[in-house]
């Protein structure tokens, strides 16, 4: 178990070192989380196996202790009945069960100790997974903040579109169009006035010429 724990510690240290230089820390963390998840699943299977084995060793221990106690009671009953040989046989079987109980006691204590160590390691793996997962969420939040800051900087960077400036340009364009339209209208009105004035001048000239001709006729007839 201690070897597994040392490997886990090295893995975490390696992750912390690589995070400082990682271009995509979330991807690196996802790889680590997947690996840790696999180890947790394997440890959970092993923990259940150890728990079942420990329980079995405990049952064997209790069974041997129970049989040793029974044989002692049988030996005592035999002695009370004056059957010494039967008492010896019962005591011999008691000793055998006590030896068996002692062996299972060692196996039970060893399995129980390893089970406790495995459960501790499993808890460390789960805590480690939660801690790294929380860091992943923090990195995601930081990356999202960075993206929003970049969009904000791009929005208000020099040369970026300014609504007020854009509206001023539209206003200027509309003013130019209005002035152009007014100029054309004034030109047309001026042209009409010139034509009217020209027509009046021509009409007056024609009238003068007509009067001149009439005077000539009167003079010629006289």
TrEMBL record:
It comes from the Bacteria. Transmembrane segments: none annotated. Pfam families: PspA_IM30 (PF04012). Residues 101-135 form a coiled coil. Keywords: Coiled coil. InterPro entries: PspA_VIPP1. Belongs to the PspA/Vipp/IM30 family. This is PspA/IM30 family protein. It comes from Cohnella ginsengisoli.
């Amino acid at each position: 178990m201690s070897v597994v724990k040392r490997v886990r510690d090295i893995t975490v240290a390696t992750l912390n070192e690589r995070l400082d230089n990682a271009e995509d820390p979330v991807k690196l963390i996802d790889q680590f989380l997947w690996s840790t998840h696999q180890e947790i699943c394997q440890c959970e299977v092993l923990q259940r196996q150890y728990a079942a084995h420990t329980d079995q060793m405990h049952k064997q221990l209790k069974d041997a202790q129970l049989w040793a106690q029974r044989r002692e009671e049988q030996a005592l009953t035999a002695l009370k009945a004056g059957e010494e040989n039967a008492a010896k046989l019962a005591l011999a079987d008691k000793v055998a069960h006590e030896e068996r109980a002692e062996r299972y006691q060692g196996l039970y204590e060893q399995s129980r100790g390893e089970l406790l160590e495995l459960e501790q390691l499993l808890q460390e793996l789960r805590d480690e997974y939660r801690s790294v997962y929380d860091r992943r969420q923090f990195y995601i939040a930081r990356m999202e903040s960075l993206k929003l800051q970049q969009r904000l900087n791009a929005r208000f960077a020099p040369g970026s579109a300014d609504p007020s400036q854009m509206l001023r340009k539209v206003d200027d364009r509309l003013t130019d169009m209005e002035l152009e339209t007014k100029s054309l209208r004034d030109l047309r009105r001026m042209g009409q006035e010139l034509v009217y004035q020209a027509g009046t001048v021509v009409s007056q000239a024609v009238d003068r010429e007509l009067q001149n001709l009439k005077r000539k006729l009167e003079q010629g007839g006289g």
